[in-house]
Amino acid sequence: MIRVIIYFIVVFILTGCMGTEPVVTYEKYENSNNISQEQTEAQKVYIGEKVTGVIKGRITQLAYNGSKNIWEYEAKSNDSSNHKLLNAHFTYNKKMAKRGDFVYAIIKNGKLEELFLIKKGNYKQKKPRYVKKRKKVNSEIIHKRTKKRQILGVPTSESILLN
Fold it and tell me: Is residue 133 part of a domain?
């Protein structure tokens, strides 16, 4: 009987703590689409502009400009949160990354300030494989394996040893 009374008291206390309205209220943002459109318009970068900002993404193009002795990079973003750029064209005097590398870059006036390599890319050109032919060794031809079956003779005697 005491257990039943304790059970009802605990249930009564817990139901009394629950209010009909939640303690924390959440607001719905009706204009969330407008905010994202404004951010993307501000983040768009056009070719030839002097870009200032940060980008987290993949290097899509890499070219060496011999007349100016600089490397020209083009990167496309995977993460555009916190006002990161969607794409960027920037230059640097050394080759810092390869095409396809995932990087975090800080850019000021179209020039690379800092570059952090997050993950190496997989854009390696695969060489075709060729089967090397064997050459003659000491003027003797190396015999190739054949699928001909060997013919064995019938055994003439058989012996069994018991220990």
Answer: no
